[in-house]
Amino acid sequence: MINPFSRFLLVLVVALFLIYPQAMAMLGTRYHISISNDIRNDTVPLSVRCKSKTEDLGMRTLFPGGVYFFSTKIDFFRTRLYFCFNVWGQKSRYIEAFKATRDEKRCLYKSYCFWSAREDGFYFSRDNSTWVNEYPW
Ligand SMILES: *[C@@H]1O[C@H](CO)[C@@H](O)[C@H](O)[C@H]1NC(C)=O
Ligand SMILES: *[C@@H]1O[C@H](CO)[C@@H](O)[C@H](O)[C@H]1NC(C)=O
């Protein structure tokens, strides 16, 4: 026999699935985040270091064509945030590479958040073909 509290939780979860099918789909989705170095300059590489509040994904040096890649799922409260610190020569830029509240819908299309580092900034794309400069250097 199920205790009343478990029964309450079960009803709650079923209700959430019925009311927010898309929200529930986003919770189960694994999002892939890629940052590619599309700066056509092989004398100065791009260094990228991504972190969340609890996890350090490490620093990597990307030559042109190199890709920094990670993936994550979103939590129920949508607090997941990964930020990256990027250095290219004298320039540096902090970007929010994955932010659940901003990206859960826009990256759902291919479950990818694409970032492209270019001479004039960090471009975002949800489909790997249409790009917007969201973080100029
Ligand atoms: C690459 O970057 C360095 C340092 O900013 C610069 O001196 C050089 O001219 C650049 N090369 C090209 C091909 O843009
Ligand atoms: C994104 O596009 C680039 C360049 O066309 C390609 O090399 C890469 O494999 C694509 N990534 C995905 C995940 O489709």
Automatic annotation (TrEMBL):
GO terms for biological process: rejection of self pollen. Keywords: Secreted, Self-incompatibility, Signal. Residues 1-25 form the signal peptide. Its main location: secreted. It is found in: Secreted. InterPro entries: Self-incomp_S1 (IPR010264). It holds the Pfam family Self-incomp_S1. GO terms for cellular component: extracellular region. Belongs to the plant self-incompatibility (S1) protein family. PANTHER family: PTHR31232, S-PROTEIN HOMOLOG (PTHR31232:SF164). This is S-protein homolog. It comes from Liquidambar formosana (Formosan gum).
